[in-house]
Amino acid sequence: MSVYASGLRNLPSLAQYHYKMSRYFLVMVGFLPVYISIYYGIIVNNMKIDIITLFPGIFEHILDHSMLHKAMDVGAVEFRYINLREFGIGPRQQVDDTPYGGGAGMLLKPEPIFAAVEKAKEDNPDAKVLLTTPRGKTYNQIVAKQLSREKGLIIICGHYEGFDERIMTLVDQEVSMGDFVLTGGELPAMMIADSVVRLLPGVLGDERSHEDESFSQGLLEHAHYTRPQEFRGMTVPEELLGGNHAKIKEWRRGSSLEKTAENRPDLTDF
Length: 270
Description:
270 residues; alpha/beta; five-stranded parallel β-sheet; three-stranded mixed β-sheet; 9 helices; globular
């Protein structure tokens, strides 16, 4: 006979009831994270994202007022900001230096970046390491979907004129937001984080929200209309008013093709 059963048999009936309920309560509390994850349709702490940056304060305001805040609340993602300056060299915590061979600007030194990535890997060992840089492959929705399936991400924010090439031994993927140059990699890091996290289960209110949006079907998203039906002489298309789902689907497809041909002909065979 188990210790639990033996002890329970020797207790008065009321004490037995309280004993049973206390054990039941402890079991329920133990499963609370599971219940929360089922309710929100997610796995608690589903993804860890570490961002290595010289300006960690930039990210705090975004997280307080965005969908990323909800994602953290429901346990879909855990963010951590690693201040590269803390891994700087010497009493001045130097993180950059002049390039060999001469040239304008400063380069990020390898030592601080290696130390910061290794620190991040301690708690995020399976993370994919990204580097934001204009020379990387152009970021798009396909890449966002691929990254949303990773266990974790470590994003290194590029800065100054560039970085010592030896850090590339740490990097899994170089990422560019387009054919332009920014003063730092913090904005691209925010864009990557936002585009990935919104694809995680349980973050958007309706999981269908991202199924018909731009790039999900290889086209730009169709036009949308809401009330009022008429505004300053501009009316909602008749096809959207009758409740005929076949006509609505056909109209939206035509609208997507039109928008894509106008703004992104490179996505089609037009």
